[in-house]
Specification:
Layout: E1 5-9, H1 19-28, H2 32-40, H3 42-52, E2 56-59, H4 72-82, E3 89-93, H5 103-112, E4 117-120, H6 122-125, H7 137-149, E5 153-156, H8 176-181, E6 187-190, H9 198-207, E7 211-214, H10 223-226, E8 237-238, H11 251-259, H12 265-279
Parallel strand pairs: 1-2, 2-3, 3-4, 4-5, 5-6, 6-7, 7-8
Helix pairs in contact: 2-3, 5-7
The chain binds zinc ion.
Length: 286
């Protein structure tokens, strides 16, 4: 059987969302009750993953009081949620550089509660991923500490339709500086710059040895149109769906469409499983 890691899924504390953000999510979902059920029960969500044939999943969480409504509490919620099955659920968390007094200490705290990667969402957190070059000092401390503690950093790239999102921060090229200033930090460009800046993402992951991308939020049937040279970067690409985000009907349908692409077997295996398994090894204590 094909082994699959979906590195980009949003199961979240719905009651902590801003009303305007909740409305966008509700509008795009055909079955909101199902999402409520999964948010309340990791066991129910794990059964959904089983049915979809997904072995492990990255659950995304980030602090965005500005656009989404989430404070640091949302990250703690995610860590607790994923602790129900740490061998299968990979908890992403976030440190917002504008709202912490000691950014490095907060990264350490997140590691202790089980967070395995950080998410930076520039268009929802309202700073550029390279804003440390313009004086946002705590952001550099976050990257430094993530590197030191072995946490990959996922950076959102690509457009967002959430009210208040600022898409000028969402261009992949703004993350070029991360590859220059933190060459040993693992950076994952979420969504590969979809749909406006895919050529930027392609360039960056070829340029920087520790820069990767996920293909979540890109309709799989369009993937090779957007990345005709995907085979060349197959070592640096992670499968993800962004489910239940806008325009992603369900995880299994997404997988089937990906499997139908004319990719080599080795590229398919790397993207669906091997690359993410390498970045997020199962620790023996889990
Ligand atoms: Zn997402």
């Amino acid at each position: 059987m094909t082994r699959i890691i979906d590195i980009h899924i949003h199961i979240q504390p719905l009651d902590m969302l801003k009303p305007a953000a909740l409305e966008v999510i509700q509008r795009s979902l055909s079955d909101f009750a199902q999402i409520q059920k999964f948010s309340a029960s990791p066991a129910a969500f794990l059964r959904y993953l089983d049915a979809a044939g997904v072995e492990r999943a990255g659950l995304i969480s980030y602090v965005s009081p500005e656009v989404i409504g989430y404070t640091a509490e949302a990250t703690d919620w995610n860590a607790r949620y994923c602790s129900a099955a740490p061998d299968r659920l990979i908890a992403f968390g976030s440190v917002h550089p504008k709202y912490v007094t000691d950014a490095a200490a907060e990264v350490d705290r997140l590691v202790k509660i089980g967070i395995r990667a950080l998410k930076v969402h520039p268009s929802h957190q309202l700073f550029a991923p390279n804003a440390y070059r313009d004086g946002l000092g705590p952001l550099a401390a976050i990257y430094e500490r993530a590197k030191a503690t072995g946490l990959p950093v996922m950076v959102h790239t690509g457009t967002s339709i959430f009210p208040g999102a600022r898409n000028a921060y969402a261009q992949p090229i703004l993350a070029d500086d991360l590859g220059v200033d933190f060459p040993d930090l693992v950076v994952i460009l979420a969504h590969g710059g979809r749909p406006l800046w895919m050529d930027e993402a392609f360039f960056l992951i070829r340029r920087h040895k520790n820069m990767f991308m996920d293909i979540s939020g890109i309709p799989p049937q369009k993937l090779l149109e957007h990345f005709p040279r995907l085979e060349e970067i197959a070592d640096k690409v992670l499968f993800g769906t962004d489910w239940p985000g806008p325009g992603v009907p369900d995880v299994r349908t997404n997988i089937e469409k990906f499997l139908a692409l004319p990719l080599s077997e080795s590229a398919q295996r790397k993207i669906l499983y091997d690359n993410a398994a390498r970045l997020f090894p199962r620790s023996s204590s889990w």
